[in-house]
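Board notes (copied after class):
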Amino acid sequence: MDPHRTERLAEALREELAELIAYEMSDPRVGDVTVSEVITSPDKRHAQVRIGLPGGADAKDALAALEHARGFLRLQLTERLQTYRIPELHFEPDVSVTLGPRMETLLKRVRKGRPRDSGPE
């Protein structure tokens, strides 16, 4: 299979899911959820949807709401995308979004704690 085709499908899924979740879902548990990444399997039967949550949001509630709306989202994707098969959606939190500010702090501490290389003597 063409890897570029898989990437194009993943990007199309990410864009459409982001729009659907932001504008067409009325569940208050979803709130300000963002779709940060979609990874499709090579056979295009499954898609891992990584969800970015704002700082104070509860991941369990948002993921439960998205799992509950999985059928609605697949139906809407079927209507919007002209593909042979819409993959099964599997939602998971994106830890890079939640750990972003903390990661920057840790990297700064590591850089300050290490002496610079003086080079070969």
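Comment from the instructor: The first strand starts at residue 34 and ends at 40. Residues 44 and 64 are 24 Å apart (CA to CA).
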